# Entry
Amino acid sequence: MKALRSSLVPWLGILALLLAACGPAATATPVPAAATATPRPTTPIKIALMGEFTGPFAAVQKMLYDTLEWMFQQDGNKVAGRPLEFIKVDDEGKVDVFQSKTQRILEIDKVQLVVGPIHSGIAATARDWIAQQPTVWVIPEVGTVQFYPGPNAVRSVATSWHSAQPDIGKYLAETYGIKKAVTIGLDYAAGRDYVKGETEKVLPGGNIQLVQQFWTPIGTADFGPILSKIPTGQDVMITGALWGADSVRFMKQATEFGIKDKVKIIAFPASFAVDDIGLAPLGKDAEGIFNYNEMPPPDFPNPQWQKFVTDFRAKFNLSPGYAWKGYVTYLQLKQAIEAVKGNVEDRDALIKALRQPLNTPVGTLTFDACGNGIMSLFLKKVLVTPDGKAQTSFVKDFPNASIPCPQPPEWK
# Structure
């Protein structure tokens, strides 16, 4: 036994020396940062495009989303190293359909972003529900005052009535001699809000007297009964809230009734039909009509915008109008996703990035503390080009159109 202990002692000494030499060095060696860092996600970013792909607003909403997808296609459908996957969802303009389909895409498709909704009635009714969902919402439309983005949403380029500016009324009165106004509006949330903006902000700005109001349901086929009652005169303006197929029918019938020659101007704040898809079927029937909204005209003097207009016409064979909303949404999404290095799963960081100032061809788009964009409005007039095509033309811009923040209690 003694012999065994004697033979082990040298080896135990050697082992102790080895442990002393190796132990501290091993524990002092730092672990490379790359070994512990969370790897950047490489799976597709799933983006739901929520809107009405059927019904009276389908054409303009399809243009918005077609533009958005087309712009990302030019980037290889990839941002910050992650591929993009778009899922179109038709909410049919119904709150229950919107909620059930949203629930499905969140639970089954696992979308990280929802663009939309666009329908004002849906957004206003489901506002609290939207704010409770575990996703990020980018709202490129929705004009009603009853909707304000929740903490998980941002509204970028929608013009609501409270963006209307008294300076517009002042300009119309001083430039065109407008003293009286007749309003005609679509009888639902956004239509009512827009007309309210005209009567409470734009018309008083020019001391313009409101002489008559008309309301019409969405999808009105015959505007004859209204047109026959409109007061006329060279100091009268027709304004209000018509868009989509309704505005196309109204303007065509207004020409047939000779109304355009019996009043000074027709100037709608958001008549999307005379910005893009409505101009082809209207042709000369649209000539001379004014509108004003946040969508720049094709001839707005900016090289970046002019390139987009040229490329857009080559792709879609018409001028961009409502497509502006798709273009801005593309710029906004791209900037935000790149800012978070593709990690859209970090919802707080993504929302913060979406609300950062955004450079656009018509100036810098900023966001207030409520998540609403502050933008310029453009007054435009429809002209017919030498080749017989109708398009809007730049008249004047009105910067810094904004929505009150915080939201007034009576709008909640």
About this structure: The chain has two domains: 45-160+316-367, 162-293+377-411. The chain has a mean pLDDT of 86. DSSP finds 15 helices and 15 strands in the chain.
